[in-house]
């Protein structure tokens, strides 16, 4: 049976493997068997050759014969005790006894296989290493996301936001590159996360702020580097493209990317491969790229600050995220969402916003968009002050003449008139109206029953 027939369901990754064995037949056999699992497969017949290869690139997995011409595989692995250069290792030998096996496992081996072996044994051991490595990457990205407190909920029911949600659902399942444009704070990363979640891709979502990383380090962050590639590079390191294997990488503020990195990114998009800094080998990748910018990239192209060919590569599918001031009808829903979220995070009792406060928030221009709104709500919750105080202007309440009432009306009738108008403004959505009014839905239902049950009974009798 050929090696291909033994391949397990684990798909090809951006990972790399180094096979070290002095038998040419074994090197050739394993190289063919593992070529569909790894983006890079290298072989060496001696420890010296293996060291030379490791000096030019990172290997996620080492498959090493214990007895080699120039040195013991176990001794070599023990000498590689560098946290920045850790690789999983599978030992092979045809001369092992129990003491050797114990020594290999104590040296940190992931597995120990006796020669001759069935290919299924090796494939099973390799799959365990791959799954463990992928889990480490997934946990790393999960911790990274939790530390940033990211949410994946798109809030709002305005026509503009409904259009955005519709486009997301339509293009998410594709693998095409997406360019998201919009002002700072409009939620471009949120949209990118939603695209990833609905894409069906199994890998991680990896966000990168291109403007927050020093230009001289950006290549290393994205593509990884080898030991000695630059000053301070003591060991090999994976890049964020590798962490995004099988998933999505989100390149935020792509307009801030230096010109030399734009050239490198263009090559990645065209070749679907990355080359770690200092390495001579390219590694194939399976990563969807989503980019975002708060600039008009076409203007940057005309000004000579952004490569025209890269712009057209990124602008396959384009999305423009509306500013918050262009959809004031979403401000109230966002306010209640952030209030609940922040109250839970801060351990503070739920805050009830007055109708006047909500109107003030709706009237603000929000130059910082949703990010500014969330910060304002957090400030109001912590300090217990209404939003109008922070802008040092009086509360300006919009009054609709149609909501007027005679001064001799009883209080109950005024309340009924006002509540009815608020419900009408939400197209009959009592839950939304109740939030505006600062009461529970149950209370609102009870009031409607008191006000209109008699009228309904009269209609039923007629």
From TrEMBL:
Q: Which GO terms describe its molecular function?
A: ATP binding; sequence-specific DNA binding
In terms of CDD domains, this protein maps to: AAA, REC
Ranges for domain Sigma-54 factor interaction come to 154-382
Report domain Response regulatory positions.
16-130
Q: Which UniProt keywords apply?
A: ATP-binding, DNA-binding, Nucleotide-binding, Phosphoprotein, Transcription, Transcription regulation
Q: Which residues carry this modification: 4-aspartylphosphate?
A: 65
Tell me if Phosphoprotein is a UniProt keyword of this record. Answer: yes
**GO-annotated biological processes:** phosphorelay signal transduction system; regulation of DNA-templated transcription
Q: What is this protein called?
A: Sigma-54-dependent Fis family transcriptional regulator
